[in-house]
Each structure stands twice: as structure tokens, then as C-alpha cells.
Amino acid sequence: MPRCCRGRQAADRFSKRHEIAPYIGSRENTTDNESLVQPSNQTEKVPKVAVVRPKEEHQTGPRRMGLIPVPRNEQELNVQRMSAIPKQDNHERDMSRFDIDSLRPPPTPPPPPPPPPPTLFEKVIVKPIVPAEITTVKPSTKSLNPSTTVKSYTIAALQQYTNSFSQENLIGGGMLGSVYRAQLPDGKLLAVKKLDKRASSQQKDDEFLDLVNSIDKIRHANVVELMGYCAEHGERLLIYEYCSNGTLQDALHSDDEFKKKLSWNIRIRMALGAARALEYLHEVCEPSIIHRNFKSVNVLLNDELAVHVSDCGLATLISSGSVSQLSGHLLSAYGYGAPEFESGVYTSKSDVYSFGVVMLELLTGRKSHDRTRNRGEQFLVRWAIPQLHDIDALSRMVDPSLNGEYPAKSLSHFADVISRCVQPEPEFRPPMSEVVQDLIQMIQKEPPNRSDGD
Questions:
Q1: Is 114 helix (H, G, I), strand (E, B) or coil?
Q2: N or C end of the chain, less CB within 10 A?
Q3: Is residue 328 located within the same domain as residue 205?
Q4: Are 211 and 270 part of one and the same domain?
Q5: How far is CA 386 from the centre of its chain?
Q6: Range of the domain at 135
Q7: DSSP letters along 146-187, please?
Q8: What's the rounded Cα separation, in Å, for the pair 165 and 175?
């Protein structure tokens, strides 16, 4: 019993010391008993290790030994943990914020998206400006002149050469415009065709230059040569070589004295020259060119009475707008228009029909349409067709100014070509190359020595 009581008292004192020890700051009050001095010395050494080593050894050694007053150390650790929790939270918030920001792409270093929009925007602005500058450029004499070899004339120079386009220099006119005689300082004569606004206003400057270039490419001995052009102040003019003997229409119907010079052989040669011009336009030029306005007033004569066909290559002007309607009306009204022209169809075979009408003028000396004659004789084709294959009637149709000086076979052959050219159906009309061969054969059969001016 005494031993048990003594052991129980010692245990109580140890437990009280264990409970009070964490709250006692001095080591001297803890030594109530000499038997407990050694354990207190151990507790002094252990806290040094317990304070210094927990973070490195994670507090594993002292707990296993069971010699450290754990409650004090755990409370201090709890206080440290409680004080560390907010810091850790703050740290975690900062880290999380840093992580979110770090995920965002850096705005400044890589700027590939910004450069493309400015460049595209600049292109969009520049492209409209360039055409605007081109369209505002004034007529094409300077900017487009290098694209053509045709000489360019100024309107001031042409006014000087034509005496301001005076009436005394007016030599002809039609639905495309008026033609004036122009005399250069060196004395050379030119024919200036001043295009009517109805015909030229629908063409831009570059389109007019294209027209000039296309006309300049038409080079044939029986086609009027283009010598120059003018495109200033809204005016469009074409300058051609000058044919001193005027038009075939004037030669046949206006000057009786001059008409006497037109022998039968000369008339065949005139028909051949005009036929060769149309053959060249239809069958040699690429693409094929339709004259569209072939008539005796567009058959010009030079000093030697050689034929030069004018208005070649101007079909684009004739077929534009109101001029197209006017041309159809005039050709039909003056007897040159083929029957299909009334329905708006015009082909190379329509030129063949008009050529047949001009041949009738050469044969008869009559106009294609003459209101001064009887009603049944006003339109030349209607009057002549029934008589072309009648020898007696044909001889009465011949121009009286020939005085009967013509071979009968040649006359019959000439009438046969006319009959085929003025067929009502286009498919039955011959090509111009066939007409050329027929006329060549007629000239070859002519007697070499005849006083017909040939």
C-alpha cells in the first residue's frame, strides 16, 4: 500500500507538471522533486530540437520519443498554422491571378493582326482613285497617240486649213457628217470629215481611237486612205486623201459634160474597182468588214478616174442609236437598201445588193431613186429588173450618153451580173470575188483600140 500510494502521488505530480508546464515561463519552479530533475533537463533539450527541427523532420522524432511536452508545441504550431492560413490564401489568390493573367496572350509583342487591315484599307482607297484619275483625263490625243501611227491634227489647224469650215469648202455631206476641203500650207489637199454628234457622241475617246486604228489598217488601192484624225473639245474628225473628181454620183447625174467622158470601158473599170474594194472588205480583212452604206456618193474618183470607196470601217458608227434607224430609212428611201434591211438584218450580201444598184446607175445613167420620173420608174431596181434579160429592152435602158458605143455581149454580161446581185433573197446573191472575176473577163474581151478614153 505505501508503495502504491507513493507511486500514485508521483504520477499526480507528473501529470500536474505536464498540464502546467506549457504555461510556465521559468524553469526553476518545475523542480519540486529531485527525482524529476532529470526529466526536466531532458525537456529543456528537446524543445530546442523541437523548435528548430519540426520544419525539417516534420516533428516525427520527438513524438516517437514521448519526452517533449507536445501540447505547448502543438498549440504554437496551431497558432502558426492559423496565422499562416490567411497568408497562404492570399498567396494562392495572387498565384491564381498570376496564372490567369499569364494565360492571356501578350498584347504588344506580336502584332500580326493589326498590319493586314491597314494595308487592305489602303488598297481599297487607292484602287478607286486610279480609275477616277484615268476617267478625268482629257481626250486621248496625247495619252493615246502613241498607240496609233495615224497623224493627229489639232482643231485649230483644221480650222485654218478649211477657213473655219466655210461653206465654200463644203464638198459633201451625209448621215455621218459633213466633208470639207482642206488645203495645207504646202498646197496639198485633204478631205476632212466632221462627224455628226449623233454618230460620235456615244463613243468614248479610247473607243474613237480604236476606230481610227481599225480604219488605218484598211489598206487597198480602191479604198480611200485615212491620213489623220482629230479628237479635241468634243469634236471628232477624220482626215482622208482628197479625190479631185468628186463622187460617182456627181459624175453620173450632175455634170453632163463630164459624163460624156465615162465610156463603157471606163464604167466597167469603175465597177471593177468598187467590186475589188468590197471583195477586200468582205473576204480579205480579218474579221470581215461590212460597209453598210455603199452607194454612188461613197464611190470617189481621182484624177485618173480610178475608184476609191469611202466610209470603209464606219459601220460601227452607222449601227449606233438613232443613226442606225436613219441609215436604214435613207438606204431604203434612196433605193440602195436590200429587202432584208427593213427587218434590221444587214450582212455582206446586203453590200452586194447595194453594189448591184450602183452597177445599174453605171448602166442606165439614172439615179437609184428619182422623184421627177413617173411613179413606176422612180425606184431604179423595180423598173430595171424586168428588162435585164430582154435584149431589146436592155438596149433601151442603156445611158444615152454612151451613144450606142458598147459591145452587145459585154452589155448582156454586165446586166447578168446586176441581176444576180439584186436578187431578193440574200443567199442567191454572189460573193464579191465572183463578181470581180466576171468583170475582169469583160475587160479582157474588150477590143484594145477603142476611142473610149481608156
A1: coil
A2: N
A3: no
A4: no
A5: 53
A6: 129-240
A7: GG--SEE--HHHHHHHTTTT-GGGEEEEETTEEEEEEE-TTS
A8: 18
